[in-house]
């Protein structure tokens, strides 16, 4: 799960967020390794989410003539 979160985060996918949270809970429960990859995937996922929201706001503002 942590590897999937990291790969999705690098690819710019917002799906890295749920995979990262699932990976962290799985790591906490089972004691597996990969916490750093899961956190990196989460950070990249949240950054891509912020980018998507900013893009939507920019497009709406541009459509209304504010930009």
UniProtKB/TrEMBL annotation:
It holds the Pfam family DUF4190. InterPro entries: DUF4190. Residues 1-54 form the DUF4190 domain. It comes from the Bacteria. The chain crosses the membrane at residues 40-63. The keyword Isomerase applies. One of its GO terms (molecular function) is isomerase activity. Keywords: Isomerase, Membrane, Transmembrane, Transmembrane helix. This is Peptidylprolyl isomerase. It comes from Tsukamurella pseudospumae.
